[in-house]
Amino acid sequence: MKARVLFAAVLAVSLSLLIFWSSRPRRPAQQADEAAEPVAETRPKQTAQSVERKKEKPEDEQTPTNGDLEGRLEGLAHGGGAPPNVLTQEALLALSNLAEQASEQMNRPIEFYGKVVDENGQPIERANVHFGLLVFPETYLETNVLTDTSGLFSVNNFTGITAFVKVSKLGYGEVKGTNQSKFDYHVVPGFEGFRPDPGNPITFALHKQGPDQN
Q: What is the pTM of this model?
């Protein structure tokens, strides 16, 4: 009950204030206009002659657009020469020619002659030879051959820089560190590279394993 009475009193006071506020006399329109009138600017007036000079500004002094700037930058970068796409094609062609020349100088004709023998120096027939070849700049080729009745094998008709040779046969093992596996054919200052000799094949030794050996 007390809350309702208090609410009614607050509502009555609010309505009284609203009626009082709306019935106040307003400021005359002339005073409002004078109060809203902006202060005159003190900037110097531009003459017609100065305006005409601005309109007659030479074209070469106007601010360049983004397209004009890009065109000037490309002209400066390329010295007024060929368009960028033509220069890019020429650069790619030059790089391709350099890579081809380097490949011809690094890659050598590959010939390899080898022989697989056992621990007694006897030839091993049908031994498996895994031959890997690194070709400049980043190609790797692989092939497999078998030894003949004399334990001999050969690989040729390839070009590359480094050969990797691994021999194996079921029932035989390789003593670690006894056989050379890498052969560099490329020529560098101070190094002539590997030179194959069919009359003196590279020997690879395997030893026969017993039943209890891996």
A: 0.55
CA distances from 58 to 33, 48, 142 (A): 46, 18, 72
3-state secondary structure 90-132: HHHHHHHHHHHHHHHHHCEEEEEEEEEECCCCCECCCCEEEEE
| Rounded CA separation 88/183 (Å) | 39
67 within a domain of the structure (yes/no): no
CATH number for the domain that contains residue 196: 2.60.40.1120
Q: What is the pLDDT of residues 113-159, one digit of tens each?
A: 999 999 999 999 999 999 999 999 889 999 999 999 999 999 999 99
Q: Is residue 172 part of a domain?
A: yes
Show the domain range for 191.
104-208
DSSP string, 52-74: HHHHT--GGGSPP-HHHHHHHHH
Question: What pLDDT is attached to residue 15?
Answer: 57
Provide the domain count of the chain: 1
Query: Domain for residue 176, yes or no?
Result: yes
pLDDT at 188: 78
Half-sphere exposure of 93 (CA within 13 A, CB side): 6
